[in-house]
Every structure is written in structure tokens, then in C-alpha cells.
């Protein structure tokens, strides 16, 4: 069985969807943008409820770790069972072992691409997406048992704190790793998406790269969402794509909450350049 999974990983609301839209457009190389509601076809998630139900052969409680975790290896084995060279898998799960289950097993992994975003900005999007107050979001991303509840579409996702999540994915692994800051993608998409393509192992064509970046731009995806909606939008949010910028926390995040995030995640924020040395 091939080690074919390329993980597209991030804490929620950190740029994972942007990454997947770019890759779909680059790989398809179509003259027109790929519809955002078809992007899921180019990289499945690791929490799809129907997949776990199918593996279990019976209805399961999508929020019960005791039922979900024993099924995870079979779900991932099913993904790599197509014998493809590459299987893109979107995940927000933390890279750790839970109840003796390896969440991100080496035996199926080809490489990983991890997107990290300033938690001061991420918390704003996290709160909006999950229908939380800003204070609730700040507490959630600092809680070691933080998780995204399951529903009809997805089983529970194990997150942990923002710092734990980032460090779990960027700690040394026995496969090629690429970590990209969301802010760097915004500042220089050509250079950073080029690094992504190198990690994937596909030829880099300048015109194709420029077109894919344009097709994945915030302006384009926002237009598509306004016209057709987006299947990944939560019921708690008015829209999935809101601003596509960085630094919004300076205006929208109360100073006491910014201070709390900095206190909770100081070491990891320093490591990724979100705080001065």
C-alpha cells in the first residue's frame, strides 16, 4: 500500500480552503475558475461522516471519540486503497495519538503542507464561523480539549490548543514537511504557492501559476459564494469568505482579548514571527 496522502493541514480558519482552491485550479489548468463547490472533489476530508458510517457498517455517534477513533485507520486505509500516487486529504485534526490511535499515521503519509495564521486574526474568523463570542473563541483555542463538534456531514475533529496544533504539525516528522504562513501567502502568493507545488511534486509553469492564483483570489471566490453559496459555510456564519486580509485584529479584537491570546500562545507566536523578539 502506497504512502500517498499529502495532508493539507491547518487550524480552522487559517487558509486551508484557499490552498485547496488554488491546487484544484492549478491541477485542472482550466481557462475558467473551478467552481468552489466542486473543490472538495480534489481533496477529500478525513472527517466525512458517511465514510465512517460506511466503515462501521452501522449508524454511529459522530461526537463519540470511543466510536470514531477505532474507525480512523480503516477510513485512511480506504483513502490510500485506490493505489494512486497522491491523495490530497484536508485535515484540521491535531497530529497526535489519542486512545492509542495515531491520528496522522506515518504509514499512509507522503508529505504534509501546513498553513499557520496569526491567532489574533484567526480568532476573529473562528468566532464568526462557529457562532461564538470573541471571548468564547479565545478560550476555545487555548483549551487542550478543544474540538469541532460532529454533525450530519462530519465527525468530531480533535484540535487542542492553537499552539499545540501548530507545534504538532511542525515538529519533526519522517516525511517531507512544508509550513507556510497565511500572511506570507497574502504578501507573495507566487513564491509561496511555487513552494507548495514543489512540495507536491508537479511541474511549475509560470502562466498556469498566475492563472491559478487569480482563480483562487479572494475577489473570485467571494463572487462565487455570493452567486451560488458555498457548501462549506457553517450555519452560524453569514458567509464563509469575509475579508481575506491580515491585521484586522488591530481594529476588531478588544485589547484585553489580544493580550490574553498573546499570553496563552506567546512562545509559538514568537516562533512564527507574530511577536517581536
Secondary structure blueprint with pairings:
Elements: E1 5-10, H1 16-28, E2 44-45, H2 49-56, H3 65-80, E3 87-91, E4 97-98, E5 101-102, E6 109-116, H4 119-130, H5 134-140, E7 147-148, E8 157-158, H6 162-170, E9 177-181, H7 182-187, H8 189-200, H9 206-215, H10 218-228, H11 249-252, H12 255-271
Brief synopsis:
This protein has 277 residues and is of the alpha/beta class. It is built from 12 helices and 9 strands.
CATH architectural group of the domain at 5-117 and 153-229 = 3-Layer(aba) Sandwich
Overall pLDDT level: 91
Treating each run of at least 4 consecutive H or I residues as one helix, how many helices?
12
> What's the CATH topology label of the domain at 5-117 and 153-229?
Rossmann fold
- Note the main sheet: 5 strands, parallel
